[in-house]
Amino acid sequence: APKRVYGDRVSGMVNKVPVLGMVIREDYSDPKLVLCHLDLPIKVDDTYRWIVKVPSKGMKRLKNYD
pLDDT truncated to tens, each residue of the chain (66 aa)? Predict the structure, then answer.
């Protein structure tokens, strides 16, 4: 069973940049990465990206305060 499922709100680091976003799915080619849709885009190779692979190590699930 996957640790992260679609819709989980998470925080993590991409290239030493903190990011917040929503899990799309775990990466099939590398289980150490999770595909996420970010709240704010980050610049990767001179391109702004909303969807990035985030390392699952150090990733934290955000709490729901409803």
Answer: 678 889 999 999 998 999 999 999 988 888 899 999 999 999 989 999 999 999 988 899 998 776
- Report the C-alpha gap between 55 and 24 in whole angstroms: 13
Asked if 62 contacts 11 with a C-beta cutoff of 8 angstroms, the reply is yes
Sign of CA dihedral 21, 50, 28, 54: negative
CA–CA distance, 46 with 60 (Å, rounded to integer): 27
Cross-sheet strand order for the sheet of 17-26: 47-55, 33-44, 17-26, 9-14, 60-61
Q: Which runs of E-coded beta strand occur in 1-66? A: 9-14, 17-26, 33-44, 47-55, 60-61
